[in-house]
Amino acid sequence: MENRAPVRLGILISGRGSNLQSIIDAIERRELSAEIKIVISNRPGAAGLARAEAKGIPVRTIDHRRYQSREDFDRALIQALRAHEVELVACAGFMRILSPLMIEAFPNRIMNIHPSLLPAFPGLNAQQSALDHGARFAGCSVFFVTAGTDDGPIIAQAVVPVMPGDDEASLSERILDQEHRIYPYAISLFQQGRLVVEGRRVIILDAPRLKDLNAMLNPPLRS
Ligand code: GAR
Fold first, then answer.
1. Among candidates 99, 106, 74, which has minimal Cα distance to 9?
2. Which atom of ligand 1 has the smallest separation from the CA of 172?
């Protein structure tokens, strides 16, 4: 693949910011060629803001409660992202639904991460829903944001087993470890120009072949 310029990122958060941290770390390890131009939180005092500030990354709080409508809030987002010449928007624990205004401003240029194997369990409390359904596997998905909730073309997924005795906290932690791997990876695929959206699918150019990954069973078969 030809060498491309670092992708100019805008990262949207609402809270803890551990996925933001994983992106910062991947850039520092040179696994991801990106520059974080701005981190925006819709919640004042979100812990993730301090993670960005500690690295000298520009931060902004755009408090959604100060806007009359979803569209007005999105207009403020778009203005801030454009002012920082953002190419790709990465939602990282950003708990607001975006209006068509925002999606049209960045077509196939907004990613999100969700703690389930989409299309299972969109929306809130995905990890608890997996437990409630007795799912044997859970996981996380990175996808391009479209108008539907957690409904866009899937870029990358990671699967984790649900263990006997898991509760929401233990399952969430196992999933979160994988979120921190696949989000920087999905962004690097974008940076390398390897993601092509065709309808509701993403084609990955030059995708590594799945050599040993065949099938997983949970519970495992007894031999
Ligand atoms: C993550 O588990 C992320 O997948 C989830 O919120 C958490 C944010 O953690 N996002 C959603 O549920 C979006 N529908 P973080 O602030 O530590 O990155």
1. 106
2. 2
Question: Which domains does the chain carry?
Answer: 7-204 (3.40.50.170)
The pLDDT of residue 222: 80
Report DSSP state, residue 200: T
Cα–Cα distance for residue pair 45/89, rounded to 1 Å: 21
pLDDT per position as a tens digit, 170-211 = 999 999 999 999 999 999 999 999 999 999 999 999 988 877
Q: Which of 118, 114, 72 is nearest to 94 (CA)?
A: 114
User: Tell me: the pLDDT tens digits for 159-168?
Assistant: 999 999 999 9
Number of other CB atoms surrounding residue 56 within 10 Å = 7
Indicate which residue of 64, 84, 114, 133 is catalytic: 114
Q: How far does residue 121's CA lie from ligand 1's centre (Å)?
A: 14
Pocket flag, ligand 1, residue 19 (CB < 6 Å) = yes
Q: Is residue 1 pLDDT above 80, yes or no? A: no
With the most atoms of ligand 1 within 8 angstroms of its CB, the residue from 22, 97, 113, 151 to mutate is 113
Say whether 114 is catalytic: yes
